[in-house]
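With this grant's support, we have settled on a layout for protein records. One resulting record is reproduced below.
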Amino acid sequence: MTNGNPNVLRVTGHVLDVTGLTKSYRAAGEEVAVLRGVNLTVAAGESVALTGESGSGKSTLLHLVAGLDAADGGEIRLADASVSELNDAGRAELRRDRLGLVFQQFNLIPSLTVEDNLVFQSRIAGRHDPDWHHELVERLGLGNFLKRYPEQLSGGQQQRVAIGRALAPKPLLLLADEPTGNLDEATGLAIVDLLFAGHAERNTTLVLVTHDANLAARCDRVVRMRSGHVDASEAALSR
């Protein structure tokens, strides 16, 4: 962990290593296997799209990597940290220090203004960069909305704030789960451009879940999941 160190961890090999990952949930009194031994590696600076039918385990995999839930078995390594061995507090620290998260639900803090939402993670991580913050505000087109609250914004504006919050601490790994799923086409394209600009300019590693073939095609690699497995025949396909 960085423990508030303003210097971002630099990795030249694999940022993410997932080995033999399993996860089941209980539904209607039965155990339902969602992940059945998933293996995945992601190199530093790589962009990877996770695709597949609904229920194939894409979002579950992303949530486990983010430490939002614990796996039943297997291992997740984020650079030099074993996510699988962390307790709840350790996983929260990992999200604070190393991850940027973008989800369909936005997950903004309703009691905070746009500006306070934007700087929330970078401040608690001890990596607030005023120059980078002002650049994000300008590029996200949020200059006129900084004093507003999330409920006063459109869906597209809220997603821009969520992306800005995720990019503000210059994360080691950016995770995005259907980031354009609730947006109209024009707004969705603008959001995608912002995600990939942050990825390219900051060499941020990007893993995103999407059903959008055009969005997946913009990534360096497409990994298709099927019935809780990585489809090995497609996992190594590159753009």
Notes: Helices lie at 58-65, 88-98, 114-124, 130-140, 155-167, 185-202, 213-217, 232-235. Residues 1-7, 233-239 have pLDDT under 50 and may be disordered.
